[in-house]
């Protein structure tokens, strides 16, 4: 089973000035059966355009989209066997929860008892048991998205395409639902492509993350590999790495501090939390600003030869005056938050 095969896809669109622009630029990507791949990138990177092209909602200017080795050129949206879930859920207001979930099964002409059992199964899966008779107007935003997810899973789509499904929710709810979406997809063995601009969502949901920028695919890797081994400075910058040290130009002290030798080529990228205040630390910096975020104190520190980085203060060391702006602070390096980029 080959799953989804995207080959050299190009998608064009006409901008507000009537000019033709490129949304997806010669992109190739495979998604194996049962795999969840997140398309991660900034706004305008081409993520949603690619998703719509796979669904058949956008015409291809070049390239091909295939499923299990069969080219989908000319196959209309409703015959591809793919499911779609969008940011606003798009529930049918005139149907109750159960009827919304059962919609795809009705289109498949599934028997009533089969529909009833499948609806109950999926509402249980998404944490809404007993909600079948509820009016969708009475649901919270998170509940509406759970219903939309259950509806998209009900007909057992060959591929589920999710376009920023959680972006309209508040952060705490997004974080909780991201884990629930992952559990629902994996427990049903659903092959899925999940579009997001939120790094945490991508890490929580995906088996692999495909980073896009300006219509191109920059890197595809499992979440841990992507973070620890970004393929380029552009990928590292997008992932949140803050400072970049060119090894060849760095002093011995800085190279030793970040844990690389003189034989290393390229540059070292330091992410948030790569530096931690420590009285025995080998790096010295000046505190520019301090703030409290998500239960920890974060310092914006200017380090010579490195630049400005975020240092996370351990809870046992949140000692006020020592971290005032202008104060000197000694720092140690956390190797797990440092990446060596290719030259």
Can you walk me through this structure?
With 343 residues, the chain is an alpha+beta fold. It has helices at 47-55, 97-101, 103-107, 112-125, 141-153, 171-187, 199-205, 223-228, 233-239, 252-258; strands at 4-14, 20-31, 36-40, 62-67, 70-71, 82-85, 159-163, 192-196, 208-213, 216-221, 243-246, 267-270, 275-277, 283-293, 296-303, 307-313, 328-333, 338-341. The radius of gyration is 24 Å and the shape is globular. The mean pLDDT is 89.
Give a summary of the structure in a few sentences:
With 343 residues, the chain is an alpha+beta fold. It is built from ten helices and 18 strands. The protein has helices at residues 47-55, 97-101, 103-107, 112-125, 141-153, 171-187, 199-205, 223-228, 233-239, 252-258; strands spanning 4-14, 20-31, 36-40, 62-67, 70-71, 82-85, 159-163, 192-196, 208-213, 216-221, 243-246, 267-270, 275-277, 283-293, 296-303, 307-313, 328-333, 338-341.
Question: Which terms would index this structure?
Answer:
five-stranded antiparallel sheet, OB fold (Dihydrolipoamide Acetyltransferase, E2P), globular, Rossmann fold, 10 helices, 343 residues, 2 domains, single chain, 18 strands, six-stranded mixed sheet, alpha+beta
What is this structure's SSE topology?
Elements: E1 4-14, E2 20-31, E3 36-40, H1 47-55, E4 62-67, E5 70-71, E6 82-85, H2 97-101, H3 103-107, H4 112-125, H5 141-153, E7 159-163, H6 171-187, E8 192-196, H7 199-205, E9 208-213, E10 216-221, H8 223-228, H9 233-239, E11 243-246, H10 252-258, E12 267-270, E13 275-277, E14 283-293, E15 296-303, E16 307-313, E17 328-333, E18 338-341
Parallel strand pairs: 3-8, 3-9, 6-7, 7-8
Antiparallel strand pairs: 1-2, 1-4, 4-5, 9-10, 11-12, 12-18, 13-17, 14-15, 14-17, 15-16
